[in-house]
């Protein structure tokens, strides 16, 4: 018969694994809506970006750009991705241009994806509001090069555009022309930025770090070599909280709906974000269309998308007739002929297309909203997990002291 | 030729590297930019070494029919599969959120649905290991261990809002946790940092002066 | 889309099966990820480094990029024992220049500034706000901490007498520091698990949206 302390000192590891799995899973399914309090290292970063926005507004100019270095792969993505997203949201909301690059190939891809993804929700346009310079290696030539000649250091973006052809890069020559530099780092790259960019070029730096590295960065925070630190998932959750309040104040939700509608309609019309005319059309719709005409202008693209849908449905018939057609003019009118001959079917297709469109739109909106509070939801699970781990530590210690006492 | 010239290169390169940091003249900076760009090209050629090295290890495994050699075949095939698909079908994006927008390239599909999930899952295994480690090894055996334990408990509670829910002391936990982070923890980390920085300086100087030669490998 | 996530989800479960014990599914995932990441890295480096920084300039007539390219090719004989010494040239260049770059900047960032901010300055103001008395108290705490930790790492004399006492304080500080690191490490590790479980229930199985 095992004694009590022996039993609590030797719980099987698989039981511990199972408990951890369950306590993390439950709060993710039934949210607890716990509140996160704000801390200094995060508030400083938020205020700094807000200051940039306010200064620009006061002087009637565009806010100064920020650089964003992304240095994490899949291994640290759950921790650093929410904060990258939050900072991007903040920049796009306030019209702060963002320029990104990465020191790892996979980080380059992650950065490119997240920048585009958030851009669609916030109506930012590639080349005008943000640019992505992808993988740059080794780090040192870039860090030092940005201080003397950014054009030489960055050369061309991920889409193959030359530096001088990207509007957002105009006027950026060195660090002097930017406001803040972010490094979202799962490696020592943040330190390289501090050692070279801060001490040699006096560039202000803010970092987003994984939990493991946070405590090492405090000496640099105290000296002011770092503007602030986004401290793991907790930091990301705090930032999300700030942004949620900001979006409420600026009544952003209607804007988001408009942006997502444009994005979805254009992609359905096969004008994908990487296609050449996407940027121009999106910019025209989002920025240069008067409020009243927006729906009408968007309808044009909706019609294109709908036509593509018809074409897909009548593809067989269309190709059969096309082979018989004599000239181009006849070919063009083929679709209209088929549509007018199958009016009942067209009505059904219209209904189906609209239904599909609405479903996709709702999915996009829901994903966007849930992504925007991912870290906050995660912190619920974090809270419970911390309590359980503390309990494990206490149980282990109680067993230890009981055995010693015996 | 085999040792002396590399050592001279290190010495000259190191001195130029230091001097360039202090001369802001445009001419020097232009040369500096040029050298930095050269390093990118130079470093690119080092990257295939990693692949070659992995290939050598795993072909060896296959040849020897070492334990689990079958997986080495999968590994080698995957490398070539990625390189071929990347160059043949391109590296265009893959948007997971829009079904009709589908997986454009198999290359990106492999990256987003194979590499990223496996990598993050592998690292998330550490959550389980740290929990068992905390339970098994984190004991208040001595005065020092007790300090370590108390500090970590406060910081752990301070990070999450549950800490604030504890009656009476709850309000102080985040305050104490932040104080620990930005004062005693900071002082300790600064002490370590100063030691590390001095060590790095020493090593850099030893490399430039040719005292430290381990990086050259054996002749 | 569901199909794509299913593959990712199954691979996730393959890796988690390792928690029970080592098994072929885990090994498959392990080898797949190494292969994919190496291949991915190679293609990306080629497209985003070799093309813009080597190939394009060459096509535009800047033949000087041939110099680093040729030196770069000297990495490759590394696996041929007779010619391995050739790879010392690119190594020497990289080590030399980067060591040179690092010396002045490391002194500035990690030594001078750090030491400067450790000096007691009671007239200054706290970067975190709060009362002046607390600020002065914190300054003293930090000064004692840095000093005692440095003494602890000073191995040229045996830690006896005064030195022993100070290094003891250093150990306490280090313990607090490690404790703090441990607390944050727990948070970091759990976050990774949260991220994966969020993927499984939100993106893949869509139990919660």
Write up this protein:
The complex is a heterotrimer of chains A (406), B (219) and C (209). Chain A is α/β, with parallel strands linked by helices and 406 residues long. Chain A has three domains: 4-28 and 373-405; 36-250, Rossmann fold; 255-371, no CATH class. Helix content of chain A is 66%, strand content 8%. In chain A, strands 3-2-1-4-5-6 form a six-stranded parallel sheet, with helices on both faces. In chain A, helix 4 (77-93) packs parallel to helix 10. The relative contact order of chain B is 0.06. Chain B is mainly alpha-helical. Helices cover 75% and strands 0% of the residues of chain B. By secondary structure, chain C is an all-alpha fold. Chain C has a domain at 119-209. Chains B and C meet through helix 1, helix 2, helix 3, helix 4 and helix 5 of B and helix 1, helix 2, helix 3, helix 4 and helix 5 of C.
SSE inventory with pairings:
The complex is a heterotrimer of chains A (406), B (219) and C (209).
Chain A: H1 4-9, H2 13-29, H3 40-59, E1 66-71, H4 77-93, E2 98-102, H5 105-122, E3 130-135, H6 139-148, H7 150-154, E4 180-185, H8 189-201, E5 205-209, H9 211-222, E6 228-231, H10 232-249, H11 253-268, H12 278-287, H13 294-313, H14 315-324, H15 328-341, H16 343-371, H17 374-405
Parallel strand pairs in A: 1-2, 1-4, 2-3, 4-5, 5-6
Helix pairs in contact in A: 2-17, 3-10, 4-5, 4-10, 6-8, 10-17, 11-12, 11-13, 11-16, 14-15
Chain B: H1 4-20, H2 26-44, H3 47-64, H4 69-89, H5 106-137, H6 143-159, H7 162-165, H8 172-182, H9 184-208
Chain C: H1 2-16, H2 24-59, H3 66-73, H4 88-118, H5 132-152, H6 161-204
């Amino acid at each position: 018969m095992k004694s009590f302390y022996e039993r609590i000192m030797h719980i099987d590891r698989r039981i511990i694994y199972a408990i951890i799995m369950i306590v993390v899973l439950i709060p993710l399914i039934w949210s607890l809506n716990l509140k996160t309090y704000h801390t200094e290292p995060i508030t400083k970063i938020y205020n700094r970006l807000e200051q940039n926005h306010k200064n620009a507004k006061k002087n009637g100019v565009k806010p100064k750009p920020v650089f964003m270095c992304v240095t994490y792969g899949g291994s640290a993505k759950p921790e650093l991705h929410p904060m990258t997203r939050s900072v991007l949201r903040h920049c796009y909301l306030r019209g702060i241009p963002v320029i990104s690059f990465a020191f790892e190939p996979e980080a380059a891809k992650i950065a490119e994806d997240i920048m585009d993804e958030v851009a669609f929700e916030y109506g930012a346009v590639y080349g005008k509001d943000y640019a992505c310079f992808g993988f740059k290696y080794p780090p040192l030539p870039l860090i030092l090069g940005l201080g003397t000649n950014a054009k030489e250091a960055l050369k061309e973006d991920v889409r193959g555009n030359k530096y001088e052809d990207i509007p957002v890069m105009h006027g950026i020559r060195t660090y002097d022309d930017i406001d803040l530099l972010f490094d979202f780092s799962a490696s020592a790259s943040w330190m390289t930025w501090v050692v070279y960019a801060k001490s040699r070029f006096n560039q202000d730096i803010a970092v987003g770090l994984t939990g493991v590295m946070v405590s090492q960065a405090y000496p640099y925070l105290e000296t002011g070599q770092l503007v602030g630190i986004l401290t793991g998932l907790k930091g990301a959750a705090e930032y999300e909280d700030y942004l949620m309040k900001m979006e409420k104040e600026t009544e952003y939700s209607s804007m988001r709906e408009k942006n997502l509608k444009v994005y979805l309609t254009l992609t359905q019309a096969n004008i994908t974000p990487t296609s050449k005319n996407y940027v121009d059309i999106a910019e025209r719709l989002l920025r240069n269309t008067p409020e009243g005409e927006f729906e009408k202008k968007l309808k044009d693209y909706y019609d294109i998308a709908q036509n593509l849908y018809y074409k897909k449905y009548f593809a067989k018939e269309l190709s059969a007739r096309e082979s018989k057609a004599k000239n181009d003019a006849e070919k063009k009118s083929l679709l209209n002929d088929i549509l007018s001959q199958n009016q009942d079917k067209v009505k059904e297709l219209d209904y189906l297309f609209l239904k599909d469109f609405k479903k996709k739109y709702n999915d996009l909106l829901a994903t966007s909203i849930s992504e925007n509070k991912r870290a906050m939801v995660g912190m619920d699970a974090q809270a419970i997990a911390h309590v359980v781990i503390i309990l494990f530590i206490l149980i282990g210690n109680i067993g230890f002291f009981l055995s010693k006492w015996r | 030729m085999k040792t002396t010239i590399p050592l001279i290169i290190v010495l000259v390169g190191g001195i130029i590297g230091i001097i360039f940091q202090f001369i802001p003249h445009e001419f020097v900076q232009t040369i500096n930019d040029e050298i930095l760009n050269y390093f990118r090209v130079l470093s690119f050629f080092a990257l295939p070494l990693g692949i070659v090295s992995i290939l050598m290890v795993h072909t060896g495994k296959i040849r020897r029919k070492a334990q689990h050699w079958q997986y080495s075949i999968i590994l080698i095939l995957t490398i070539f599969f990625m390189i071929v698909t990347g160059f043949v079908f391109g590296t265009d994006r893959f948007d997971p959120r829009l079904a009709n927008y589908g997986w454009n390239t198999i290359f990106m599909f492999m990256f987003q649905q194979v590499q990223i999930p496996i990598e993050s899952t592998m690292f998330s295994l550490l959550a389980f290991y740290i929990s068992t480690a905390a339970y098994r090894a984190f004991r208040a055996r001595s005065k020092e261990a007790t300090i370590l334990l108390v500090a970590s408990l406060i910081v752990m509670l301070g990070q999450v809002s549950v800490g604030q829910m504890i009656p009476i002391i709850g309000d102080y936990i985040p305050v104490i946790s932040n104080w620990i982070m930005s004062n005693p923890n900071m002082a300790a980390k600064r002490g370590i940092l100063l030691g590390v920085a001095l060590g790095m300086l020493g090593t850099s100087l030893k490399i430039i002066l040719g005292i430290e030669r381990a990086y050259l490998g054996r002749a | 889309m569901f199909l794509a996530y299913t593959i990712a989800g199954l691979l996730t479960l393959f890796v988690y099966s390792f928690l029970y014990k080592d098994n072929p599914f885990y090994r498959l995932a392990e080898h797949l990820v190494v292969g994919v990441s190496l291949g991915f890295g190679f293609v990306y480096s080629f497209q985003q480094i070799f093309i813009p920084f080597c190939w394009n300039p060459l096509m535009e007539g800047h033949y000087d990029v041939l110099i680093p390219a040729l030196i770069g090719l000297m990495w490759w004989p590394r696996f041929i024992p007779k010619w391995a010494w050739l790879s010392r040239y690119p190594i020497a260049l990289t080590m030399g220049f980067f060591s040179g770059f690092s010396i002045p900047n490391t002194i500035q960032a990690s030594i001078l500034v750090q030491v400067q901010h450790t000096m007691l300055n009671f007239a200054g103001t706290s970067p975190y706000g709060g009362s002046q008395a607390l600020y002065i108290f914190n300054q003293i705490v930090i000064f004692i901490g840095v000093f005692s930790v440095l003494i602890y790492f000073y191995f040229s004399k045996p830690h006896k007498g005064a030195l022993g006492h100070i290094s003891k304080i250093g150990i306490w500080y280090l313990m607090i520091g490690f404790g703090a690191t441990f607390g944050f490490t727990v948070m970091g590790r759990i976050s990774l698990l949260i991220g994966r479980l969020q993927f499984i229930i939100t993106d893949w199985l869509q139990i919660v949206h």
